[in-house]
Amino acid sequence: LCFPQKLWKMVESDQFQSIWWSECGKCVAIDEELFKEEVLGRRGPLRVFATQSMKSFLRQLNLYGFTKMQKSFRRSASLPEFLAEEAAISAHRQILYYYNPSFNREHPHLLEKCKRRVGLKRRAPDAPEMDER
């Protein structure tokens, strides 16, 4: 499975407590410390992603078009999300919210549009142009 498909399966699964849909189903919520332990800390055949680094995982989110969202101070109305927020606050942990228009709980068919961004390599501003000969 590619990265967005693995992420979708995790968010939909009851197996992981560190990642879930936001109340509206348009964002992915991640309890950063628990995610490091529960997902990135896995070894061997239980390993989910090729990386064990949170920084690399977040880079993958960005490469697939996810953007970090700031959570408003309004508390969540859904009980599971509210309880997760409460647990994170009491443990001084951070919950990260990421949004991608093609990653939506109500529209799983959009997942196929969730592609890795391909960018041009940047050239130093004062680097000379290459001669094609």
UniProtKB/TrEMBL annotation:
Pfam families, per database record: HSF_DNA-bind
GO molecular function annotation: DNA-binding transcription factor activity; sequence-specific DNA binding
Classification via SUPFAM superfamilies: Winged helix' DNA-binding domain
Any one of the GO CC terms: nucleus
Main location: nucleus
Keywords: DNA-binding, Nucleus, Stress response, Transcription, Transcription regulation
SMART domains in the cross-refs: HSF
Cited InterPro entries: HSF_DNA-bd, WH-like_DNA-bd_sf, WH_DNA-bd_sf
Domain HSF-type DNA-binding, residue spans: 3-117
Alphabetized PANTHER family for the sequence: HEAT SHOCK TRANSCRIPTION FACTOR, HEAT SHOCK TRANSCRIPTION FACTOR, Y-LINKED
Protein name from the UniProt record: Heat shock transcription factor, Y-linked
